Every structure is written in structure tokens, then in C-alpha cells.
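for the record, two folds in this file. i put them one after another cuz i was lazy. first one right below, seq on top, C-alpha cells after. the second one comes after a little note so u can tell where it starts
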Amino acid sequence: MKNLITPTAIFLTALILTFSSVSYFKTQPSVGIALPQAVGVFETSLQTGITSTATTMTLTANSIRGGGSLSGFNCFSVDEGSSNAEVICGTVSGTTVSGLTRGITYEDGETEVAGNKYSHRRGASIKITDFPIIQRLKAQNNGDSTFVNQLQYESYLTPTDDADIISKKYADDLAIAGSPDASLTVKGLVEMSSQAGMASTSVAGTGDTTAWLALSATYATSTPTIRGLYVPVSENDGYLSQLWTRLSDAYTWTGAHIFSSTVDISGATTLTGLFSSSATSTMATTTVTDLTATDITFSGSITGDGSLLTGNPILDATNMTNIPLLGATASDTLQASADTERNTTSDPYVKLKETRVNITGTVRVKFSLKQSGGSAYGKVYVNGIAVGTEQNTSSATYVEYTETSISVGAGDLVQIYVHRGTGTAYTNNFRVYFTEGSLDTSTVITN
């Protein structure tokens, strides 16, 4: 066996270099199978006998032929050639070998086998053996075991064959150089965009690469608390936060907008599209090209473009410009009629009829009175204030009375108040007459 040690060591060295293309091993902590030392020639004997379960043994001497001594992890053939021959591995320090692995199998050079463990007498021969290292190297190179330490090239080599083992540097360079830039049709490398890059129209970066820019979650948020260039993200409810809009900016709306809840416009506003509101809307100075609303009250001045207003606006003719509404002029043109008969036995005046006039000017008012069992009195009121002449009758049939001209303002309430002298007072045919434009200007409230 000792004559085979040197050739075997040469073979093992060549095997390692052929398999891994390395010229030396750099020791670093790792996990794998440990390789024992393998000096060319070493012979000694046991200083004291050992049992089959002993975990330490003492050598008579520790001297390598030609100089030096053993240390570290080594494997020995004990009582070679005898019936109780055994392969033992352990850590050598001086003449003490500790941490023994006993009865190593002759198949893999690593596993302990109980049947291969023996007791050995004092003076038993001990020789260095390369059997375990050969078996372990074979297992490593066959992929049946792992390397304890990392393998490293002495200098950087470029692989030339498909079967060559590459270095980390080559792999790192390959990860960048070997991939194309991404595009709409090609998957590949991208460059993370800066905030300025996100806001530009450039597809590719302008820095160290020409790859397409990719947005980063760093610059995406649903609630921006710091102003800058960010990508808007909806909140959990699926809607964008109002913080994304600078509400102090002036906006120009060119399309149709429908407001179904209360709208409060406190600044000057120009609406060039259709403004449609079915809820309460409060506006400051507002220019409207086309306005549709259910009910409008104008408290400020109004400037029109020559078109008639439609719907049911409450207007004051004194504060309108360029709106073709001339106001009301008392005439015999009937505008509102409340003909239902009402009666009262009240001694003081009470309101029995009421009509709202949605225009400013003068109106003519007619109503009829009769009594039952006494006399009846009636008078025209506006907004609860008497403005007409008191009329009275003792007739049991209706007598018509006329107020030729009563002044009213837009939204005023024209009313008939009645009381009895004695008995019961009746009224009907309360009617308002005037001439105006084509506005819907009068609404009967109580008939």
C-alpha cells in the first residue's frame, strides 16, 4: 500500500484539476464532506491498546519520513493485513488522535460499520491510508456528496465550451450583458425611472443605460402628503383622493355637467356648456351659456343674451339686462285663476285665497263676494299687507269686484282676505290679469 501512495496522490491531484479547472482551493466555512490529509508515507504503532469503542488513541511517534509531522484530520489503517484490520479517521494533535470515526466501510470511505470495529493491542501497526480520500473525492466528483470549501480559479477565465464551469464574475456579467432591453414585444431589462423621468415623454432612460424606464412603487401613492412628481393610485374604495386636485385652480368646463347634490360656487365661474342642476346651487358671479334648472332664485343682477328664460325662475325686472322680459302691465289678459268657493264665519279678516306672481309690474285683480244670513267683506292684500279697497255686500248671490292696478314684484303673493259682518261670508273667482312676455309667471298656491 505504501508504494501506491505517491502515484495515487498524483492521480487525485490530476482528477481534481480536470473536474473543476481550479489550481488551488480557498478554505471558507461551508457544508459538505471533509477530506482527510494524505501525506506520502507515514508509519508508527499504538502506544497503548484501544477497545472497539474507543474514541481516542495514542501514537508511539508522529514523524513523517523526510521531516515534518501529522496534524489535523487524517485516516489510518490499523493492523493492516490481519483479521482485525480497521480503517480509523480522527484529528491528530501531537501523538493524540481524537474524535475517532471507527470501522469505516470499504465502500464509501465515510460510513461507520459496527462489524468493522475491533480492539487493538499495544504496538499494533498504524499506517497512513488514502482509501477514504479516494472514496470521498469520487463521491464529490460524481455528485453523490458536496464540497466542504468553495472552489476558486487562480485567475479569471472565460469559458469556451458548453461544459465549462463558469465563475461568479462571468455569471454576474452575463446577467446584464446577455439580456435585451425590454419593449412592448420583448421581455428584458428595464431601468428604474427617477421622478423627473416619470414626468417626461421619453420611453428610454438618459442615464447609464438606454433601457426603457419602469415606474417604481417608491413614487406611487394614494394620498400624497408631500407635493412632487408621483403616480396617482386609487384608495381602497377605488376612487382617487381629492388631494390629487388643486382645488384653488380655475377650471373651464366645456361639456354638460349635472349636479344632483348641493352645489356652492363661491368664486367667479364661467360655464360654456349646459349647466343642469336638480339640487340647491349657490353661485357667486357666474356666466352661463345654457342653463337648465327646476327652480331658480336670482338675488343679484342678471345679464342675458337676448333669449327668453323658461322654467319657473323668480325674477325682478329691475335688476335684469338684455333679457326680453318687459314686466307685468295690468290688463284683461287672464294669467291666474283661483275659482274655488271659500267661506268664513270669522269676524276679523282671514286669508282665503293666494296666488304668487313671478314678475314685476302691475296686475289687475278680480274676485267675487256673497253672504248668507248677514254681510260679507273682502279686500286685496300683497304679502299680507292690505293694498286694495275694502268691498262689502249683503247680496245672497255673487257680486264681482275689481282692483284695476296693483303693483307687484317678482315672487310677491297676491291674496284675498275676507270676514263676515254677520252670518257667513263667501268668495270665489279670484283672478289675476296682466300682459307680459312668454314667461310662466303665475302659480296658484291656494284655490
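(here's the note) second protein begins now
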Amino acid sequence: MTTLRDVFTALAPESLERSPHLPLAHRRGMSAIQPCRSGHDGSRLSQCQHCGGQHRVHHACGNRHGPQWQPHTTPQWFPHHLDTQLPGPHVLLTFTVPETLRPCIRSPQRPAYQAMLHASATARTRLAAAERCIGTDLPGFTGVLPPWGRQLQYHPHIHSIVPGGGLSKDRTTWQPSRAHFFVPVQALSPIDRAICKEDMPHASLLEHLDPHVWTLPWNVHRQAKHHGHAAFTSLAPYGFRVALSNSRIVGLTDRTVTVTYRKVGSARPRTTPLDAIAFLRRFLQHVLPDGFMQVRHFGLLHASGAIPLDTIRRLSVQVHPSEDQPPPRPPPPPRAARCPTWGAPRRVVMRRWTSHRDCVDTG
């Protein structure tokens, strides 16, 4: 099976020669993925407790854009945050920017992404404060910014999970929104666009944009969820999803990389061929700036909020009875490596580390 490491190993030198001024984050991603699971970062030796056979698994790179990042990180992050969700209905909101704006925000990614996140958060807070909507000045939401589309095209957008309500101004009661409704998306879209326009001068982007882009509609999609658990389950995979997993690469032949994708609203997998260098360019444009936080919490869900989450949950439960909540979720069983022949558990015999950088034991 062709992997992302195979493509990078074969074509990364040529890509660097053609584009000698790649951003540092892109170069770090390339240098991390090329030796991923090749033995460069060490390995783990385990022994089957049934047959005694030994199995060696190479460590994966610790780069968050590598294909081994999501299977390792999501099971650790997801259960912890799932238990922190508030009771009651939630809403999933998706913010997108017009296609004509995307090429301009691809180069100064950090300030542009900051502007997108700030605009979406401020627009929701401003509209939720209106008495005809909710009448709260302290809503909360968790946002994720994935910068890619289904065919690896550059498509930065924001997925967010929003509890249906917020705290009152005196912080003593929970102000619920209407059932399966947070704020009207028709009003949310122009506010998001106006705030983003205000933030663009700080990102030194406004003079490079066509003024016509500010007259185009900015799509905001809303999807209601009955429980926070269901909403968070839908959102969580985006938090650590990589642009392309190894399972989507069909093969590399004659400098052409074939990948699979699915169209919106269809479950049938399709394939598309991409020039090898164009494939690398598409993948690298989704590499996030160093230190950029892709998952962020706003409002009453922020880690530095003045009101403890237990207090917010207690106020919310008074409005949403406990019988409306899903049953307690049992803790997930510990992940254990098993023998591919007998299916018996394997016991770790030795771990070998040959690199000082962060690595992932993929077992």
C-alpha cells in the first residue's frame, strides 16, 4: 500500500528544489513525515502471550499533520472533553468564506485564521445578546478550524458546537434558546462578514482584496442536535483529523497520485488523479502555522472563565431535566495491542528511542 511517507520520500527533494522559499512550518512537516514509521524514531518490541511470537512496530512522528496523529490523539482527547459537555440541546454551526477570498488568506495564514475565529465568535456573542434571540451576554462554544476540503482543495472553514443558551447578566440563571435554534443564520452571516472585514487591516490583507468580496454572501450552516453528547461526537473528529490519511491514497504511478474522496451527500467513494508535485502542494497548504491552536473554547466554556463549569452545569440542569440526558457513558476499555495471528494480548518487551523529538507509539 502506498503511504503518504512514500510520496514525500520520492518527491520532497524535487518539491523543495522547485519551491526553495517554503514556510518553516511546511519544511518541518515534510522532514517529520518522511521518516515516519521507518525506524528512524525508534520502535516497540512486544511479545504475544499465547504463541510467544515477537512483533516490532516502528514509532510514528509526533507531527500533528502526519497520518498517524488522529488515531493516536483522538481516543485520548475525546472522552475527557465529552464528559464536560453541558446538558440540553446543542447546535452545530459551520462558517465558510467565499471562494474568491481564500487565495488571499492562504499566505498570511495565522492573522487570517485569527480574524476568522474572532469574527465568528464575536458575531455569535453579539447576536445572542439581543433580547429577541436569547438575551445573554455570555454564551459558549467550541470551534475547530480545518483548512481543507474533500478533494484537498484549500477551503478554510469553522465548525463549532454551541450549547442552546447562555448565562443571564447577573450569572444566576440559565437563559435557554428556542428549541433546536440558537440565533438566525441569515442575520449571523452579514455580522460575521462585517467583523471579519474590520479585522483584515490588522492582518494587512484589506488592500489585497477585491472590494466585491464584501458583497458576496458568507454561508453559515446550522444543524440542531438534541444532546451535547451527539453534537460533540459529530464535531470531535475534526479536532485532530489530518488532511489526508494513508487509506485514501490508491497509488503512485508515473508521477501521478490517485486519492479517493466522497462528494457531499454521497457515500460512494470516487477517485481523482493528481500530479505528484501538485499533490504535495495541496497537502502542504493545509499545514497550520507553528503553535496555532486549531481547537478553541470561547465564552463560558473557556478554560479561564470566572464561573466554574460545575456551576454552569447545575444552572443548566434546572432548565433541562436530567431525564432528557443520555445515560452515563461507561469508560472506554484500555487500548491493547493484539497478536495478528491468535488475537491474544501482546506484552511490551522493549521500547527503543533513537530521536529526541516527540514520537507516537502506535502499537
